[in-house]
Amino acid sequence: MSMIDTLNREKTLAMKAKSAAGTAEEREAADLRLSVVRMLLGAISEAETSGKQRTTLNDEQVVSLLKKEAAKRRATAQTFEEAGRTLRAQQETWEAEYIGTFLPRETSPEAIEEFIVRYVAETDLPAGGKAIGVVLGALKAEFSSFDTRAASEAVRKYL
Fold first, then answer.
1. Rounded CA separation 47/41 (Å)
2. In terms of Cα–Cα distance, which of 7, 60, 57 is closest to 35?
3. How far apart are CA 86 and CA 102, in angstroms?
4. Where would one find coiled-coil regions in this protein (predicted)?
């Protein structure tokens, strides 16, 4: 099932949960889920129609878009937190976490570090900044999903 199909299925489930909700809290939770999924589907639709020709995003592009949307929510939550609007910050944080449920699991930092240590020990790396690029390229070839910022810091630590 594609990512877009998964989001459409989640939209249907949220709509059913909203109509079947017994309490106001259940209805509000389902409504929040529904609004986030609709926002994600809207962002996908906008990305598909933003160029000169309409395109269909593949799963990799959808995952990239979802990561950007989650990052926006985390940044907004931090801004609200700094402004003293904790309730709004909590909602943005929840939205980012909910978006994260649609993303593939990232490789653990421990597995990344283990790979880096092994790769650095087994490979004759070029000197300087090129070594970081070589190791990050090997990481991308080995793992499908990982935090690139944390991986880059780990590579610098071991070089």
1. 10
2. 7
3. 25
4. none
Under 8 Å between Cβ of 33 and 17: yes
123-148 pLDDT, tens per residue?
877 766 787 888 888 888 888 777 77
**Residue burial 29-41, b: 16+ Cβ < 10 Å; e: rest:** bbebbbebbeebe
135, amino acid identity = V
Between the two ends of the chain, the Cα-to-Cα distance in Å is 41
User: What pTM value is reported for the model?
Assistant: 0.72
Identity at 65, one-letter amino acid code: L
Residue range 54-87, pLDDT digits in tens: 889 998 899 999 999 999 999 999 999 999 999 9
Q: Give the phi and the psi of residue 56 in degrees, each rounded to 5.
A: -110, 125
- Read off the tokens for 58: 């593949």
d(CA 52, CA 75): 30
Mean pLDDT of the chain: 89
